[in-house]
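Q: What residues go here?
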């Protein structure tokens, strides 16, 4: 096993899977962390499991929490998932699929696990180019959280561990991400992106995430393995 360890936050989507491929290419032992937070479907949990198996990670940890009592999101509450929006609409404002403080919560679990594993790097597949405007996907957020990590855990305060928050995709388009993943051997048929799948193994084809996925494969000139309902 490599001496250096990385926690990779994995949702089973394009971005987190590509981030995992980058961590593997850099020689890290991979520890996959997936959060079951009460999202409206289990498809991404199954995709994250498939990805973890394909990458032969050292451990795939699924943390169960329930953000449904907090609500405030189309992914955790009785709010309709936006569909049929075009690029201009997607990039203007924060949509109802935003989950309050989600990446802050996820990174906190990853930081706790990093401290116990003595892992120096946490990879997160956030992106601030082809994305839905989420505030916790911006470079400012990642930089602020890394500062927090240096103050929040015993190992960091004692000087025995420095944890870096790695967001290697943050300034890339979806097409650039896909092309990089292909170069690194990612099998994107394992991944799932849709916010509102009509059934297992199928994507709606209309939500923001499906739109960005389709656009990314088209612009990358890479065949899209996704089965869309529309």
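A:
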């Amino acid at each position: 096993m490599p001496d250096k360890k990385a926690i990779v936050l994995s949702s089973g989507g394009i971005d987190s899977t590509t981030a995992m491929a980058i961590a593997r290419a850099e020689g890290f032992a991979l520890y996959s962390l997936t959060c079951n937070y009460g999202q409206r479907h289990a498809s991404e949990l199954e995709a994250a499991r498939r990805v973890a198996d394909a990458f032969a990670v050292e451990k795939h940890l699924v943390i169960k929490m329930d953000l449904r009592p907090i609500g405030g999101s189309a992914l955790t509450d009785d709010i309709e998932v936006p569909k049929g929006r075009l690029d201009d609409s997607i990039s203007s404002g924060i949509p109802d699929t935003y989950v309050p403080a989600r990446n802050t919560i996820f990174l906190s679990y990853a930081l706790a696990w990093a401290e116990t594993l003595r892992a120096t790097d946490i990879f997160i597949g956030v992106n601030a180019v082809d994305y839905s405007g989420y505030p916790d996907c911006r470079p400012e957020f990642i930089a602020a959280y890394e500062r927090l990590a240096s103050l929040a855990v015993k190992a960091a305060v004692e000087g025995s561990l420095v944890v870096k928050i790695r967001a290697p995709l943050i300034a890339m388009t979806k097409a650039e991400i896909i092309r990089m993943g292909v170069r690194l051997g990612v099998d994107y048929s394992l991944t799932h992106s849709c916010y509102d799948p009509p059934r297992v193994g199928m994507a709606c084809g209309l939500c923001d995430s499906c739109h960005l996925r389709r656009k990314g494969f088209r612009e990358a000139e890479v065949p899209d393995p996704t089965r869309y309902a529309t």
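A: Context that may help when evaluating the design: The chain has a mean pLDDT of 95. The two ends are 44 Å apart (CA to CA).
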